[in-house]
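Practice problem: predict the structure.
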Amino acid sequence: MVQQVSVVTESSLFYPIFAATAETQYNTNATGILTNTGAEYFAWEKLSAGQRSQLSATAKADLASFPADWPEYEIVIGDLGFQPGADYAQIIGMLEAQIGRGYVTIASSDAAEPPVIDTKTFSTATDRAVAVTLFKRMRAFMATKAIAPILGPEVLPGPAVQNDTQIMEYLLNNVGPGFHGSCTCTMGKSNDPMAVVDSKAKVIGVENLRVVDASSFALLPPGHLLATVYALAEKIADDIINDY
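Answer:
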C-alpha cells in the first residue's frame, strides 16, 4: 500500500536540490535522510481470534502446524522513494507462515544457464486468505487516529479496491518476494531426500565441502535473516574448530 503523507520522505530525493543537500549532509557528517534505509518500523503479529474465526477449517489446520508463538505475518512501514510530486509512505505486508512451497531446479546440464525458480506464491487457499486478512490489517492501521494527522489519500491500490476479490486481484498483480532466499541446500538427516547438508553443514556424500549460509536453513524463521545467519555461522565455525 502507498499513502500520501505530509512529512518528508525519500520521494523528496527526486528533486535535485534536495538530493544534493542530502548527499552533502551524509558525506560531511553522516546525517540526514540518506542515513535511513527506507524502512522505519517492523512488526510481527499473530492473527487475532476474530481474524482466525473467519478462516476455513483447512486454513486453521494449516496454521496450527506452526509453533504456537509463530507469527502469521510481518508489517513494514517505510518511506521509500515512490514518485515526485508529493511525499509518500509505504506499508508492506509479508507472509511468515506460508503453506505453499516453491522450488529451485536446473534447466539443463549447462551450469551457465540460470536455474528454474518457482516460488509458488499464493498457490494455496490458506496463503491467499491470510494475505487478504493482512491487507485489511494494514488498512486498519493506516486508519488509526494516531497516524491520521500526517496522512493524505491512499494512492495504491486506492479506494476502489474494497472487497476480498478485488483485494486478491490487486495482490496477485503486485506481489513480490521479500528477498530472503533460503533453504535451497536444506540441512537434514542423510536419509532425508530433501537434505543437502548435515547438522555440521557438510554436503552429504561429498568430502571437504560445507554450505554455511541461509541456503542451509531447514526452514525460514519468521523474521529477517541476519541474526540467524550469524548464529549458524558461529555454530558451524565451532564445529570446524572441533573437527580439526
